[in-house]
User: Fold this.
Amino acid sequence: MQKKAFIFDLDGVIVDTAKFHYLAWKKLANDLGFDFTETQNEMLKGVSRSKSLEILLGIGNISLPQEQKEKLMDEKKSEIFILGRILGCFRNIAWYKRPDSASEKQKYIGSSGICE
Assistant:
C-alpha cells in the first residue's frame, strides 16, 4: 500500500515548540515595528494562528487587509521551522511548500527530531 499522507505533531506534544512560536511572533511584531513580550505571548497560548495574529495586531494597533494577514501567517509558520532548525530541535527537517493547484493554498511537509 502506498502512503498518501503523513501527520506530524508540531503543537508541543512531541517537541516543545512554545519557545519557537513566541520567537516567531516576536520577530513578526518587530518586523511590523513594535515589541512583543513573553507576558503578551501568554494571550496566544491555545489560540489558532489566525486569532493569534489578530491579537498580535491589536497589541501593535495595526489593521491590515486579509491578504496581508495570510502572508504574515505563512511567514510566521516558516519562521518556526527556521528557528527549530537553527536551535537544533528539528535536526532531520525535510520540508517544502508548494501551491495546491486547486486552491493555491500552500502545502507544507515536514519532519522533526527531539529537542535536547
